[in-house]
Write a structure and sequence with these properties.
The complex is a heterodimer of chains A (about 400) and B (about 425). Chain A is an alpha/beta fold and about 400 residues long. Chain A is built from 19 helices and twelve strands. Chain A folds into two domains: about 270 residues, Crotonobetainyl-coa:carnitine coa-transferase, domain 1 (Rossmann fold); about 80 residues, formyl-coa transferase, domain 3. In chain A, strand 7 and strand 8 form a beta hairpin. In chain A, about 55% of the residues are buried. Chain B is α/β, with parallel strands linked by helices and about 425 residues long. A six-stranded parallel beta sheet of chain B has the order 3-2-1-4-5-6. Chain B has a three-stranded antiparallel beta sheet with strand order 7-8-9, covered by helices on one side. In chain B, helix 1 crosses helix 7. The longest helix of chain B is centred in the middle third of the chain and has 23 residues. Chain B is elongated. Chain B starts with 12 loop residues before the first strand and ends in a 16-residue tail after the last helix. In chain B, about 55% of the residues are buried. Classes of the chains: A alpha/beta (about 400), B alpha/beta (about 425). Chains A and B meet through helix 3, helix 7, helix 8, helix 9 and strand 6 of A and helix 2, helix 6, helix 7, strand 6 and helix 8 of B. Strand 6 of chain A pairs antiparallel with strand 12 of chain B, so a sheet runs across the interface.
């Protein structure tokens, strides 16, 4: 096998922060040419978000931007003026895929909605990522990840019952939306290969969170129960605690299946005949009693030892890692997951790599672009503007 | 056998050898877009989501109205959700006849997707090297928890312990409490959706080059990628973040606030000074907008505890839905914490057709989530049928597709190579 999996695919990214950039990062890794269109002056808001080396703000050194925009080209373009819109139409004629995350209606307002762009390029696949989607009563509402976590249902069940509903760390729904949109684009490309037809993709983060937590719908639809917030307790009725402290002060996540494996691990053969633990259901009902055995075992073993010996019994235990543990994880180290890459402003840093292999096809990693780094190359090389045209666009603040 | 319009993956056949949720989530979506996805189960190892074959009283598995019925393995909510639209085949891959049948199906398939532990397919003699002889164009996808190499390669994993290993659990919850597991195994659907994209990419690659491929995932590594900003801070500054509840490093106020009623909450995220002034306006507290403690983002971050008290004092007397609409009308990102039960009547979900009722011959008719995170305009995909009964499509697959006779089937059944009922509980019954 030669070449990358998405060799020759042309992608235009009109998006910022996490969701759209994460989506097109995956496309770039698989070999697509991605041109990222940023606002003249400030660029992608991820450039202001940091983290920055030594916490010194610098639009060319934001860790979030550097991570999410590897192997892309950056141009600047003001979409709110007619010469900017004309340049975008030329880019759309070049592109196979366009990813954007403006508020619904904003692209239409500039004359750059899907129906307008489809006329420029009938095979275009255009994906819009928004908190609520392009239709429905909430479509014009604003959200951050906190709000999509809340409205998507996830928060209602995460956290301790005596504390408020709790979000997951960072802008995670935005990462998820990037993955969903990536998958949607692939399905749309497959259809285009067969039919020549492009299409429009409407990604809704609220719906995505609902889909990711759909087990909780079953409790309501099938049994009329609302899934509770239950902290780290397994099961819904007095189940055992999933987190325990080890002898060396570590925190470990425990599991009790397969049951015969746990009985062996605990070294308590009598539990195999104990009626309190005779079935899955019984073990859930007597979770608090099980807790005592689990806690005692963890108190007597160090974290790494408890993890290894439990896994040898096929028990799905795991250390509760810190980010430092993630970087030094023997599993990730041996697989060479983090790799060093040099950036002209920030220098060499370790980055998370690809989580998969696709046959022998290579993945593409290259440092994120500086703001407008590829203006010259794209406007004069690709779109046929003269150097004078480009100077004029720069003068007018369009580029 | 299944027909429909606007199903772009129609004609693609997928063999799904799966446990838990990651590969099932992918398979469900492949079938949503038209692929024929065959869920393969062993006679003595039914899928864990079918529950126990003799569930004890007081069970935790979800059944229609709590009733397991005569064939409980066909009635669980979890199996119905996760294996919608698929065909069901029961075959023992440990038996030589089972391996033979499987290889014959592989020859007629496009994709084999496996999320067993690393190395299981090789031990069964059904690794990629063997299967590609049978079908050179095959796309084979292995989705083990940790990848096929490394010291953890043989370890078992679910989404839950990946939350711990990625560092995400350590970052979830409040600084004065222990970390939190989401209990939602969120890495599973993320891995499953990414697998959907890469499988389709591999199929496109095959149409161009004529070559199949082996795809190998590490679910841990997929999940770690969603912590990008945190990882880069460690990478740049050696800083390992700690959990901060619902707060944000930049936005303030940022949190959920109690509303009228029991366990009712409103999420509010203020990203700018203008939004802060708008929030003060909606709370009818114009003097707050002038308070120098809260004049800018850094000030609001420093005084977050005081802010929380003021906002909670206001929100406690508000209905979460009215406050949500009022804040949004003023340009503030806010939203109610919705329980899953509330989604069934949510006007936005209703208008977008989020739920669809699906009839199941042994479980009855229930609404299921019918829309994913995205809608495709020309090829929207759709749910076409309920999850398969155990072994439901043995006859279709072995007779109509492979051409076996009645006697062959009876023979296979007598030797327990195939079965119409599960013969034992899965040791991994969830």
């Amino acid at each position: 096998m030669e070449g990358t999996v998405l060799d020759g695919l042309r992608v235009l990214e009109l998006s910022e922060f996490v969701a759209g950039p994460f989506c097109t990062k995956m496309l770039a890794e698989m070999g697509a040419q991605v041109i990222k269109v940023e606002r003249p002056g400030a660029g992608d808001i991820a450039r202001q978000a940091g983290p920055f080396p030594k916490d010194i703000p610098n639009a060319e050194a934001s860790g979030l931007y550097l991570y999410l925009n590897t192997a892309k080209k950056s141009i600047t373009l003001d979409l709110s003026c007619s010469s900017g819109q004309e340049a975008l139409r030329r880019l759309v004629a070049w592109a196979d895929v366009l990813v954007e995350s403006f508020a619904p209606g904003e692209m239409e307002g500039w004359g750059l909605g899907y129906h307008a762009l489809e006329r420029v390029n009938p095979g275009l696949i255009m994906a819009s990522i928004t908190p609520f989607g392009q239709t429905g009563p909430y479509r014009h509402y604003k959200a951050t990840d906190l709000v999509t976590f809340a409205m998507g249902g996830l928060m209602s069940t995460v956290g301790d019952p005596d504390r408020p509903p709790t979000k997951l760390p960072g802008p995670m729904t935005s990462y998820w939306a990037g993955v969903h949109t990536f998958a949607a684009i692939m399905v749309a490309l497959f259809h285009r290969d067969l039919s020549g037809q492009g299409q429009y993709i409407d990604t809704s983060m609220m719906e995505m969170v609902g889909a990711h937590t759909n087990s909780n719908y079953l409790m309501w639809s099938h049994e009329g129960r609302q899934a509770p917030r239950r902290g780290n307790t397994a099961g819904f009725g007095g189940g055992f605690s999933q987190f325990h402290t080890t002898r060396d002060g570590g925190l470990i996540m425990v599991a009790i299946a397969p049951w015969d494996g746990l009985v062996e691990l605990l070294g308590k053969p009598e539990l195999a005949k104990d009626p309190r633990f005779a079935s899955r259901e019984a073990r859930q009902q007597h979770g608090k009693e099980l807790d005592e055995y689990l806690a005692a075992f963890c108190r007597e073993h160090d974290l790494e030892e408890a993890f290894q010996t439990a896994q040898e019994k096929r028990l799905t235990w795991a250390p509760i890692n810190t980010l430092a543990d993630v970087f030094t994880s023997p599993q990730l180290q041996e697989r060479g997951y983090f790799f060093d890459m040099a950036h002209p402003v920030v220098g060499a840093l370790p980055y998370p790599g690809s989580p998969l292999k696709m046959g022998d096809a290579p993945f593409v990693f290259a440092p994120a672009p500086l703001l407008g780094q590829h203006n010259e190359e794209v406007y004069t090389g690709l779109l046929g503007y003269t150097k004078a045209d480009l100077a004029q666009l720069r003068e007018a603040g369009v580029v | 056998m299944l027909t429909g319009v606007n199903l772009p993956l129609q004609g693609i056949r997928v063999l799904e050898l799966s446990v838990a949720w990651a590969a099932p989530f992918c398979g469900k979506n492949l079938s949503f877009f038209g692929a024929e996805v065959i869920k393969v189960e062993a006679p003595t190892r039914p899928d864990g989501h079918r529950g126990s074959i003799n569930p004890a009283a007081g069970g935790f598995t979800i059944y229609p109205n709590g009733v397991p019925g005569e064939r409980p393995w066909n009635r669980t909510g979890a199996f119905a959700e996760r294996h919608r639209d698929k065909l069901g085949l029961s075959v023992d891959l440990n038996a030589s006849e089972g391996k033979e049948l499987f290889k014959r199906l592989v020859a007629l398939s496009d994709v084999v997707m496996v999320n067993y532990r690393a190395g299981v397919m090789d031990r069964l003699g059904l690794g990629y090297d063997v299967l590609k002889q049978v079908n050179p164009g095959l796309v084979m996808v292995l989705l083990p928890g940790f990848g096929n190499t490394g010291p953890y390669r043989d370890y078992s994993s679910y989404g839950s312990n990946l939350e711990a290993l990625t560092g995400a659990a350590g970052l979830t919850g409040y600084p004065d409490r222990e970390p939190l597991n989401s209990n939602l195994t969120w890495p599973d659907p993320v891995v499953g959706m990414m697998a959907l994209g890469t499988i389709v990419a591999a199929l496109r690659h095959r149409s161009v080059t004529g070559e199949g491929m082996l795809m190998e995932y590490s679910q841990l590594e997929v999940a770690v990628r969603t912590l990008g900003g945190f990882l880069m801070d460690y990478s740049m500054n050696g800083r390992a973040h700690h959990r901060i509840g619902n707060r944000d490093p930049v936005m303030a106020p940022h949190g959920v606030y109690p509303c009228q009623g029991e366990d009712q909450w409103l999420a509010v995220a203020v990203a700018s000074d203008a939004e802060w002034r708008a929030l003060c306006g909606v709370m009818s507290k114009p003097e707050l907008a002038e308070d120098p403690r809260f004049a800018d983002g850094p000030g609001r971050l420093r005084n977050h505890d005081a802010l929380d008290e003021i906002i909670a004092g206001w929100s406690s007397a508000q209905d979460k839905m009215s406050a949500f609409h009022a804040l949004q009308a003023a340009g503030v990102a806010a939203g109610p914490v919705l329980a899953h039960a509330e989604h069934f009547t949510d006007p936005h979900f209703r208008e977008r057709g989020f739920f669809q009722e699906i009839y199941h011959p042994e479980a009855g008719t229930f609404p299921f989530q019918a829309v994913n995170g995205f809608k495709l305009s020309r090829t929207p995909g759709r749910n076409r049928r309920s999850a398969p009964l155990y072994g439901e499509h043995n006859r279709y697959l072995l007779q109509d597709v492979l051409g076996l006779g009645d006697e062959d089937l009876a023979h296979l059944e007598a030797r327990q190579v195939i079965s119409q009922v599960p013969l034992a509980d899965s040791p991994r019954a969830l």
